[in-house]
């Protein structure tokens, strides 16, 4: 499966959230995601531009309620980013697992080492088949991600993403770096 998305840093999420409501976008909910990234023993994913992560995701309580049930952990492999301007595109393979902690033990036994954890609160919407995430990422700030629906050509996906960004009033360069790359970069700078 091919993931095509734009990630844009924004100073505030509320104006975009309001615009999504005005446009009657479908609200999918709020989740907290904790992504544990691993590096391979036989190659350096930072060099090959790949990623391997275990994602833990759970619902966020609304107005002081109890947290929603967590989703099954997901193991995700991301291939190198494909060349081209605009939103980034890369292969993405996801597999749901029953027990993430046991999967992490298996990865450890095979020589994979944890690289970093990325934690974010994600407010999710759907518009015109695209998924829009309003992200607050620990240690990094606030971002909007617009992911094109599966099945579109790259040209169609880019067009859809740009149209939605314009409708939302989101301006700025589509970042080609992942949250993991940003986090590792900030660590090197400190």
Description of the structure:
This protein has 190 residues and is an alpha+beta fold. The chain has a single domain, classed as Beta Barrel (Hypothetical Protein Pfu-838710-001), CATH 2.40.320. The protein has five helices and eight strands; from the N terminus they run E-H-E-H-E-E-E-H-E-E-E-H-H. The longest helix has 15 residues. About 4% of the residues have low confidence.
Short description:
This protein is 26% helix and 41% strand. It has 190 residues and is an alpha+beta fold.
Features:
Hypothetical Protein Pfu-838710-001, alpha+beta, 190 residues, globular, single chain
Set out the fold topology.
Blueprint: E1 2-9, H1 14-22, E2 26-39, H2 45-48, E3 51-59, E4 74-81, E5 88-96, H3 100-109, E6 113-127, E7 130-137, E8 141-147, H4 154-168, H5 179-189
Antiparallel strand pairs: 1-5, 1-8, 2-3, 2-6, 3-4, 4-5, 6-7, 7-8
Indicate the radius of gyration in whole angstroms.
17 Å
Whole-number tally of structural domains: 1
Order of helices and strands: EHEHEEEHEEEHH
Count of discrete alpha- or pi-helical segments spanning 4 or more residues: 5
Major beta sheet, specifics? 8 strands, antiparallel, barrel
- In round numbers, the mean pLDDT is 91
The CATH superfamily bears the name: Hypothetical Protein Pfu-838710-001
Spatial ordering of strands, largest sheet: 1-5-4-3-2-6-7-8
User: What structural class do you assign from the helix and strand content?
Assistant: alpha+beta
The CATH first-level class comes to: Mainly Beta
Strand content: 35-45%
Sum up the overall morphology in one term.
globular
Total number of beta strands: 8
CATH topology: Hypothetical Protein Pfu-838710-001
